[in-house]
């Protein structure tokens, strides 16, 4: 189900039926002008900052320094903390600013970072004068930060190159907490103020003015926000002096390279988790998730800023190319002209503190690692989770599930997981089944399992208010619901009708919610059932902007405004805990979530929500997943075919081809759409879809290795071209093709009636790169080599997905396609060796039991393959790890050899003695070594004779 029709959904809950509304209703969602703190704090032009540092306040500690910062007009003081973060290659600084003596403690984000508190290394003051204080990180060479006294700003350097400036545009704002002023009283007849009454002076000094509309309470449509703490917004700008392009701050249905927004009449990008159905493309409207990290990239440096704030946030972009639309066209590549000023961003948040990590790079991959060092890497999923998933709202009953599963077998199409939406429950009561439609759920699950398949079911955070529902009664009795501002259980409307919402910020609520997943509680399931957490922004059909009131209260007195973007993330923590304990710590949980925040990648995969069956949304799926990937969330995909609407055969087939090369691969559709299982389309379309899905299954060993390496390194799985071609300025804005690891270049067909060719950009290396300035790329289907950088028109037909293997890499595949990935475990491998200009190649392969956590106890194989001087060899990367695999090497395909070998010899023992001669096949420039039949567990080499 995804978020479905928000406005219509309330009426559905009330028993009304409405036709589908075409497109999102923008009136349901605020603009910056309607969001009072954004309106107050937004700046569009550089200015002289009103903040200054008090140098005499400097205090030096072993792992951080502190300074007092004064607002020159209000005379309010703040405390700045600056520290070097431990263990991040290339260097990361942590910068915090908070009130020195706030009226109440301001919220600091919890649960997003891997560690409860950042881990610091030595932080030392290198110099201190009346005008500047310079801080260095002794453990990271060449990294320093200089705090300018007045006007306040912080410059961050790497090897004397300025890479980030905080408050360089002077846009810092920090609304200190204060008491609401009393209404103005008329002066006595003598014209003198009563003794001690300085309210007028205080009002004049306050920033913002106390009578600013929306500062102390705010209305949006029929909803009222009481704002018990009054105005408490903050803003800070960051400039990237070495950059030409900025990217990040997902989730938005927009280009990968961020557009210039700092113009009157244009809204900033908004980070505020919302249920937005049929969302529009090419704008910065808020969507389901918020990850407040942004990167600035240029030829010599990539740096990032992670703004750790979970409140509503707007991000203005000052683009280096504000007069040029940033597009992914390969015909009109963006012209990065010399600019008068570098790109910058301005973060504007409603509450909290300034809590910033500056990621120093210097390369894109360095910056990506620095971010995931802080927020975590996605754990290796079970193999089945990265295979193909079949879903719709809804499969009707047990017979429907059984029939769809059987039809995949009948049409010889692999499929690993069937999904059930909300209609499987008893009246939208989660942790229950509708026993009229699903009278034997355990048996249904067992039947799927015996076929090698899995089931995933949906469980949302809203709980039906029904005195006959056990979980509602327990949450009520134990006080586990979110409260309204008056202390009562908050009540909103969602799919069940009247509903309350689990307060996942309460440790007791998280634990009790997690307990519901245990087999002794939710008995009609199995420990292998996956979970889908949807509607967790949270979605409230009758709430402001289809979500929860900001003055609701969570455990510990937290206002919802402070933690809104964390709500879904906290549900994931509870769900993951429940599934982990359900499997007794053995099985890796699978969770899909719609709402997400920084760090959500540690618990769940993400999909891009309620998209539409049109070509624009197909194109957006790549842009959105690329933005999420560089923000740590690699396990991303979009509803294949589009959630809303009925795709025609061409769009449906092309979407399958694109989805087969994205990390999460699921077809899903709205309840009002036509059934769209592949065999319901014309035969030629079904065959194209089957071919796309089978490509996915062939490449599962490669995908599985990528996911494992992501857990080790934190690098994205889907990567923009600039990740590995940072000096190629023509690649910066390209977001209709991408890299998988550094091995495959993927350029799906994304345009209607594009039957003959698809323009593909082969990036330039930036080091001269030999002939043509680029790497060698081999067509995955034909092995035709492309050796020049630039745009090439690649011939396509209905079946063609332009995918290219980079020269210098070795890819593992399995060529025996079965009904489900779980049945391929012991099948043999094929290695495709694509040689570079030097005639060399390297690659990796990861093998384990594909389900458990035993790999974290050394039960795995991590292999490196190398081809050099005519010899292909295999060795263990982690020598102490071991896994007794039954798989073996079936075939080696070598492309790019300058000459044809006459023979091949296999060596397997430690003495180097030959084991036997191998059969060779030659087809043009491709040489195939057939049936080496060596165990993947063994060390071996294959020598080619010429």
TrEMBL record:
One of its GO terms (cellular component) is endoplasmic reticulum. Residues 174-196, 218-230 have a biased composition (Basic and acidic residues). Residues 1-23 form the signal peptide. One of its GO terms (molecular function) is carbohydrate binding. It holds the Pfam family Glyco_hydro_31_2nd. Residues 714-811 form the Glycosyl hydrolase family 31 C-terminal domain. GO terms for biological process: carbohydrate metabolic process; N-glycan processing. Residues 91-316 form the Glycoside hydrolase family 31 N-terminal domain. It is found in: Endoplasmic reticulum. Pathway: Glycan metabolism; N-glycan metabolism. Residues 174-234 are annotated as: Disordered. Keywords: Endoplasmic reticulum, Glycoprotein, Glycosidase, Hydrolase, Signal. Residues 379-706 form the Glycoside hydrolase family 31 TIM barrel domain. Belongs to the glycosyl hydrolase 31 family. This is Glucosidase II subunit alpha. It comes from Anopheles dirus.
């Amino acid at each position: 189900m995804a978020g479905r029709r928000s406005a219509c959904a309330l009426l559905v809950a009330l028993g009304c039926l409405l036709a589908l509304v075409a497109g999102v209703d923008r009136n349901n969602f605020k603009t910056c002008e309607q969001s009072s703190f954004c309106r107050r704090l937004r700046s569009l032009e550089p200015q002289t900052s009103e903040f200054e540092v008090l140098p005499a306040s400097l205090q030096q500690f072993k792992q951080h320094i502190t300074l007092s910062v004064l607002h020159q007009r209000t005379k309010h003081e703040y405390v700045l903390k600056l520290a070097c973060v431990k263990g991040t290659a290339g260097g990361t600084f942590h910068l915090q600013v908070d009130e020195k003596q706030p009226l109440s403690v301001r919220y600091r984000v919890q649960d997003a970072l891997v560690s409860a508190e950042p881990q610091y290394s030595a932080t030392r003051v290198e110099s201190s004068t009346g005008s500047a204080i310079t801080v260095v990180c002794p453990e990271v060479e060449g990294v320093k930060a200089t705090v300018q006294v007045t006007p306040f700003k912080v410059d961050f350097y790497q090897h004397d190159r300025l890479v980030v400036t905080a408050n360089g545009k002077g846009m810092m704002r920090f609304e200190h907490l204060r008491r609401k002023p009393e209404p103005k009283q008329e002066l006595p007849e003598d014209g003198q103020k009563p003794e001690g009454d300085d309210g007028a002076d205080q009002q004049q000094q306050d920033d913002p003015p106390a009578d600013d509309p929306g500062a102390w309470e705010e209305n949006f449509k029929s909803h009222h926000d009481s704002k018990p703490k009054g105005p408490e917004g903050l803003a800070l700008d960051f400039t990237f002096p070495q950059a030409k392009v900025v990217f990040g701050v997902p989730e938005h249905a927009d280009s990968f390279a961020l557009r210039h927004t700092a113009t009157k009449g244009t809204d900033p990008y908004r980070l505020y988790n919302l249920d937005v159905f049929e969302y529009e493309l090419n704008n910065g409207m808020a969507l389901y998730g918020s990850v407040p990290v942004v990167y600035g990239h240029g030829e010599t440096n990539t740096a990032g800023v992670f703004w750790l704030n979970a409140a509503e946030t707007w991000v203005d972009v000052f683009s280096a190319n504000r007069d040029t639309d940033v597009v992914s066209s390969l015909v009109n590549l963006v012209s990065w002209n010399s600019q008068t000023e570098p790109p910058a961003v301005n973060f504007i948040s409603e509450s909290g503190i300034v809590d910033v990590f500056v990621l120093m790079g210097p390369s894109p991959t360095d910056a990506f690692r620095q971010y995931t060092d802080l927020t975590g890497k996605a754990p290796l999923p079970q193999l089945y989770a990265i295979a193909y998933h079949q879903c719709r709202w809804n499969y009707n009953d047990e017979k429907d599930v059984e029939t769809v599963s059987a039809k995949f077998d009948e049409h010889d199409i692999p499929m690993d997981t069937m999904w059930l939406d909300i209609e499987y429950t008893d009246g939208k009561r989660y942790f229950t089944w509708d026993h009229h439609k699903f009278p034997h759920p355990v048996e249904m699950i067992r039947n799927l399992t015996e076929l090698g398949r899995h089931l995933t079911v949906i469980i949302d955070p809203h709980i039906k208010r029904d005195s006959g529902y056990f979980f509602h009664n327990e949450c009520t009795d134990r006080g586990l619901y979110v409260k309204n501002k008056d202390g009562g259980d908050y009540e909103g409307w969602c799919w069940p009708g009247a509903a309350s919402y689990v307060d996942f910020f309460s440790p007791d609520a998280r634990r009790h919610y997690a307990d519901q997943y245990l087999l002794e509680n939710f008995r009609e399931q199995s420990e292998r059932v996956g979970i889908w957490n949807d509607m967790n922004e949270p979605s409230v059909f009758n709430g402001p902007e289809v979500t929860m009131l900001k003055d609701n209260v969570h455990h510990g007195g937290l206002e919802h405004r402070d933690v809104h973007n964390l709500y879904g993330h906290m549900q994931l923590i509870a769900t993951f805990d429940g599934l982990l304990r359900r499997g007794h710590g053995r099985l890796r949980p699978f969770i899909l979530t719609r709402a997400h925040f920084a760090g959500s990648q540690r618990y769940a995969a993400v999909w891009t929500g309620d998209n539409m069956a049109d070509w624009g949304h197909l194109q957006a799926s790549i842009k959105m997943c690329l933005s999420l990937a560089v923000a740590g969330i690699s396990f991303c995909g979009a509803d294949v075919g589009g959630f809303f609407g009925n795709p025609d055969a061409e769009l449906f087939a092309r979407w399958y081809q694109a989805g087969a090369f994205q990390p999460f691969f699921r077809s899903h559709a709205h309840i009002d759409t036509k059934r769209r299982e592949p065999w319901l389309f014309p035969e030629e379309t079904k065959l194209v879809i089957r071919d796309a899905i089978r490509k996915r299954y062939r490449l599962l060993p490669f995908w599985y290795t990528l996911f494992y390496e992501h857990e080790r390194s934190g690098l994205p799985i889907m990567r923009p071209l600039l990740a590995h071609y940072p000096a190629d300025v023509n690649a910066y804005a390209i977001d209709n093709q991408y890299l998988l690891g550094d091995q495959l270049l993927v350029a799906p067909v994304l345009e209607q009636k594009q039957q003959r060719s698809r323009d593909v950009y082969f990036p330039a290396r930036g080091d001269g790169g030999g002939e043509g300035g680029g790497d060698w790329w081999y067509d995955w289907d034909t092995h035709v080599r492309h050796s020049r950088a630039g745009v090439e028109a690649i011939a396509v037909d209905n079946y063609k997905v332009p995918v290219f293997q980079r020269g210098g890499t070795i890819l593992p595949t399995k060529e025996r396609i079965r009904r489900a990935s779980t049945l391929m475990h012991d099948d043999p491998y094929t290695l495709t060796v694509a040689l570079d200009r030097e005639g060399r190649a390297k690659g990796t392969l990861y093998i384990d039991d594909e389900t458990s956590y035993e790999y974290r106890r050394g039960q795995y194989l991590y292999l490196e393959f190398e081809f050099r001087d005519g010899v292909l060899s295999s060795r263990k990367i982690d020598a102490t790890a071991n896994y007794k695999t039954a798989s073996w090497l079936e075939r080696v395909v070598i492309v790019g050899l300058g000459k044809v070998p006459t023979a091949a010899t296999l060596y397997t023992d430690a003495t180097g003695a030959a084991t036997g001669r191998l059969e060779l096949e030659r087809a043009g420039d491709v040489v195939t070594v057939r049936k080496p039949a060596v165990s993947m567990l063994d060390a071996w080499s294959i020598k080619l004779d010429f």
